[in-house]
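Ticket #4471: structure output looks truncated?

Reporter: J.K.
Steps to reproduce: submitted the chain below (681 residues) through the standard prediction queue, then opened the result file.
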Amino acid sequence: MKMCFTIRNFFGMESMVGGGLLWAGEEVAMRHTVEDIVLLLSDEGAMAPEACARALNVTTRTVRTYVSRVNKQLEGIAHIELAHGAYRLVIDDRRQFSVWLVKAREPMRGVFSRDVPNRVYYLLNDLLARTGWITIDALAGMLYVSSRTISHELKGVEKVLQTYGLALEKRPHYGIRVTGDEMDRRTCLASIALQWLEDSGSAHGTQRYEDFSATSMVGGELDLPVIARCVDRVLGACNFQVASISYQNLLVHIAVALLRIREGHYVPMRRESLAHIESTDAYDVAKKVAAEVDHEFKVKLPPEEVGYIAIHLEGKRLLDNGNDSGSSPVISDAIWEIVTEMLDRVNDAFHFDFRSDLELRVNLAKHTAPLMVRLKYDMALKNPLLDDIFARLPLAYAMASECATVLTERTGVVPSEDEIGYIALSFALAIERKHADMPKKNIVIVCASGAGSSRLLEYRCRQEFGSYLGEVCTCNVSQVPDLDYSHIDYVFTTVPLPDSIPVPVREVSVFLDTNDIALARETLRNSRESTRLLDYFSRDLFVADASFASKDEAIRRLCSMVATKDGIDDDLAVLVREREQMAPTAFGNAIAMPHPMHAVGRTTRVCVAVLKQPISWSDDQSARLIFLISPARDAGLSLQGFFEAMADLLTDKEAMQLLMRDPAYQTLVDCVEHREKGRNR
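Returned output as attached by the reporter:
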């Protein structure tokens, strides 16, 4: 009987395919949305209700429910009708439907996400587990869909495989199969499982590992809880700490290793690499973990496999000098030197001087030591906070991306966005500390009546901005003219006030909504002489409805515009490309902020391009808004305010979407002025 290893509930479905991460019979139970049946009929054409039910693995009654939902949600765009015993998709507004269809088929940022069709997950699992060939017709039969549908889904499969250095080989009369290194195959399999854990809530601690069991058709149970117990026993006995956010990566790595070993697939390791790992204390811990696993699952792990467990342990361990065991490594001079270079690079690029911030230095050193191990052995570390970091911390991410160029130069490996995101968290805290060290601001809170509403707003302000605030006073509208403003920095009010007030005024709601909080924090961070961001833009450095064939063409043309206007002798495009090779500068939401390796401009300028269609900027990031920044050589500390203001603009989702909808220079001006007025009102 063919052995099947499974991690049940990772995908809410099961597969009879040999060696896959999923198992549970020949029928595939998938989650369904409105998109499922629309995409099905769009691909297949007219289908009888019974055929739809088989394809979606539901009842015909459920299919009728889906049809009803489609017709309600896509009213005016498309609808499904039943004619001559078959459902067919009728498109009412082809332009709007095309937009909807692209959105429905486009995965979210990242290789694996909830929006990747479940069939893609299934096919990846199946093909990664196979060593031989399989025909498209055979896959279609397993999933109860047509060969045409499988061919369409395989495009998504190929895109994911390429990200991991794998390929989909096709041969007439044989079929298809995945080719590539065993380690790349395992990394891809592990990523599928880790993404599902995250989507299911385990990554954030909302579900226990007992919910994610794995069962083998022969040889008894093989599951994450058992693996977790093996690891916990050893780590506890050895007092060896592993960062909690990396813990599940280690468990899944071991699970995938057991799966592949039982199928006869091992990972080779160079003798010199194994010798280096064997000399670490992590290898001793890994041998104990391997012994526990062997005891539970009766699978003997060879030295190379133990070495990879040791690499995972060494690459995920906590550097904690307070560990009483004395086994935690002290930060080496080499790591300290790398951190110094990272902070120098940030100071040169952004004119933020963190070199005397000891807390940041230590945080970066503690993260960089295991990170260098991961880079050396090409290990992937998932960052579940990455989307939030892109959206909320673009300046910190830009600084971390600049640091990544140092790591690339040292190792020859470009750190992933996930790794850069972890570095960004350290910089985000450092930026907050820098602002917290600024003089406290005294504010007055004004409400229509005073009393309860003003006290509520005072509480919310202290809750959200306590580190920025000194004295906080409350009053009603009638008391405003008689106030002594000599020691007041700002006024926060829920009602309009006269223009004669001598300090900046910020209008907010009583409950401080998200936009209020962002603008108020920006107000308190900045002095009254805040950076005027609009001074860095110009109409002749704005390109609307641009069409660039590639990232390289975009950089070349935009750099040429800046160089011509600023009279730059250096080849700006070469410096920008050099910077991009170290680490791409895409920050999610279809936005990129390229800049040169070092400042060469006479004046700090921003060249903006709004593209008709997005272009690929990195492996899994596209860009439709490009803000090419050319800093001045002698900009000094003024760049601090500039980059903070730019970060605030780029995180204004409404402003960026408006600019994409209405790609005009005046739109950009309006967006910038709106934010600056909000800061000073």
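Triage note (M.O.): checked the attachment and the full token line is present. The first strand starts at residue 78 and ends at 83.
Status: closed, working as intended.
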